[in-house]
């Protein structure tokens, strides 16, 4: 099925539709996989046009620090499912630009906790406002029920993906780790 500009994609045609009973988990996986790839490409293209690709990791880290408070870099990496070396580079850049600060960990003097600064909180809020404005424009023509279902199903998909990541990397852990909790939070 071609997905050119202006084309409406019909996921029911791929998965057999909700009313047919013909939709198998395998058909749904095929359709979802295609839509996730398409979604990822559209988001990537949007970020490149807006020249935000460079700041994606920064936005994730700032969101975590603003919402959840001070953390060690290792905990931040685990919570955001990012590599520690990536987090370290981002942290160094954000410290240099005054978006976050390092403070001694009161529980372990050898470690440091990362705190967002006022400028960091302002940058996070600016990212959020821009994202929300773009999504508001996109979702304006959708019915309230469609918007609700999108949010409900995306949250469910994110929760299931986070749990799958945890069990895939640590099959003995089914209780929900810090990484799962971090991956299931929004922003």
What does this 3D model show about the protein?
- The chain is mostly helical.
- The protein has eight helices and two strands.
- The chain has helices at residues 11-15, 25-50, 56-68, 73-80, 84-96, 118-139, 144-169, 178-184; strands at 100-105, 108-116.
- It has a two-stranded antiparallel ribbon with strand order 1-2.
- A hairpin with a 2-residue loop joins strand 1 and strand 2.
- The longest helix has 26 residues, at 25-50.
- It starts with 10 loop residues before the first helix and ends with a helix.
- Mean pLDDT is 80; it is low at 1-8 and 175-184.
Short descriptors:
disordered N terminus, 8 helices, 187 residues, single chain, mainly alpha, two-stranded antiparallel sheet
Could you provide a short overview of the structure?
With 187 residues, the chain is mostly helical. The chain contains 8 helices and 2 strands; from the N terminus they run αααααββααα.
Q: What is the percent of helical residues?
A: 55-70%
Q: Identify low-pLDDT runs.
A: 1-8, 175-184
* Quaternary structure of the protein: single chain
Choose one word for the global shape: globular
Strand content of the residues, in percent? 5-15%
Largest sheet: 2 strands, antiparallel
- Rounded to an integer in angstroms, the radius of gyration calculated over CA atoms is 20 Å
Q: What count of helical segments does DSSP give?
A: 8
User: Could you tell me the mean pLDDT?
Assistant: 80
Placed side by side, the strands forming the largest sheet appear as 1-2
Distance between the termini: 32 Å
Total number of β-strand segments? 2
> What structural class is derived from the secondary structure elements?
mainly alpha
- SSE order, as H and E? HHHHHEEHHH
